[in-house]
Design a protein that fits this description.
Elements lengths: L2 H8 L7 H10 L7 H14 L2 H10 L6 H5 L4 H9 L7 H18 L12 H11 L4 H23 L2
Length: about 160
Amino acid sequence: MTKDEFVERFGGVFEHSPWVAERAYGVGIAEPVTAASVHAAMTAAFRAASEAERLAVLRAHPDLAGKLAIAGELTEDSRKEQAGAGLDRLSAEEHARFTALNNAYVEKFGFPFIIAVKGLNKDDILSAFETRINNDRGREFATASAQVERIALLRLTSMLP
């Protein structure tokens, strides 16, 4: 596949960050092309990026159960992922708790709380939120980056063998 075809197909795997796919293509994808081989190349490109570029990827992620979800403006992948965890069916109190945590987290770290929600429910996510908000910025940057990589693998697994 050409670079343009690759970026078209995989450019959204890292939320609103097609540059990861562009750089991964340049690194080369091991044959056969599988979720694992594309993920390895994309993860290598992400990890080789500057901290500012990785921060931009983190900041491209939406708040969980946040304004974009309410407005129906999430990417299709994010919408499905959040709905699968029940975040589209929160009570008013639960939504208020997510909003408060989202705001506190962004204020402390400068990027949204990111977690691969597949297989989790709202209580699991709230528990992780409440634990991780106590991390220092370096540890949380690393944790959020690892979660971005996990989300990418889950997305690629749904696209490829």
